[in-house]
Write a structure and sequence with these properties.
Length: 342
Amino acid sequence: MSAEQGHDSQVVLAEPIPDPGIEPHELRITDIDPQAADRVERQVSTMFGLAGLLALGSCVAYFAIPRDATVVIGPLSGNANNLTLGVTLGLALFLIGAGAIQWAKKLMVDNEIAEDRHDAHSTPQQKTEIIDAFSEGVAESGFTRRKMIRRSLIAAMGLLGLPAIVLLRDLGPLPGRVLYNTIWAKGIRVVNDVTLRPIKPSDLVVGQLVNAAPANLEPMLQESHTEYQNAKAKAAVIVVRIEPDKIRTPAGRENWGIDGILCYSKICTHVGCPISLYEQTTHHVLCPCHQSTFDLADGAKVIFGPAARPLPQLPLAVDSEGYLVAQSGFTEPVGASFWERG
Ligand code: FES
C-alpha cells in the first residue's frame, strides 16, 4: 500500500494495487510435441554424459600431464596440469548446471500456482502435504520416467566424485626430512633478497628489518628453476637489529647474534606463510595469514595466534671481510609444524 503525505502532515491512503493474478499458462513446444521433448531429453543426456567424460578426462590429465609442464597462450603462460584440471572440471560442472536448467525449463511440469502465506510452523497435515508434493514433484520432473536423463545424471555425478578423490593425493607426500635442511651452511653470506648485496652489521640501524637470503642461492638459478624455487622457499630469512639491552636471549644462543642483529626464518611455523609485518617498538612480527605474532626480542616466541613454536633462528657470525655469515645451517626444521618433526 502506498501513501502520500500533504503539507499539513495529513496522511492520505491510496487505493491498494489490485492483485494481477497469475498470467495465462502458455504451453511450451515440448508440452505438445513429443519429438521435441525427446530431442531435449537427448540434449540434456548428452550434456550430462559429456560432464562425466570430462570428469574422467580430468583424472587422466592429472596423472598423464607432468607437474612441471607449462602451456603458453600468447603472452600468458601457466602450469599445464593445473590448467587442464581447471578447464575439464569447470566444463563438467558447467554442463551439469546447463543440463539441469534445460531439463527444468523444457521438460519439467511448469504449472504456475499461487500459495497464500501461512505460519512458519507446519502442522502434521502440512508436513504430509509437503511429502506428497515432493513425491509428486519427483514424478512430474520425469526423474523416474526419463531413464536416459536419470542414468546420465547419476553417472555424471558419480564420476564427478572421482576427481575429488584423485586430488586428495596432492595432500601428500608427508614432508619427511625435506624441511630439516636448507642451503644455509657455515660461512654462507647473508645477502639482501632484492639487491643480492652481502650485508654488513653497519648496514643495519636499530629498528630495521631486512628480508634476506643465502648468497649461494643466486648461482642455483642458472641450473634449475625448480630447485632454485624450492631452495629459496625454505631459506628465506629476516635480519633485524634490536637494542641489545632489550633482547632476552634463550639459553645456548648467547653468541648467535651480532650487536643486537638477529636472524630468523621468514616462514611462519603455523602453515608456512611468509611473515612480514614488523612493529619495531614492540619487536613483534606478524604473519598476515592467521595473525600469529612472534617476539623477535625473545627468541621469536609465539605471543599470539595459532602457530605452535617459535621461528627457527639462524646463528650469525662476521667473516674476515666484515660481512654477516651463518655460523651453521638451521638447527631445527623451518616452516610449518608437521607430524614427523618430533
Ligand atoms: S600461516 Fe602464519 S599464522 Fe597461519
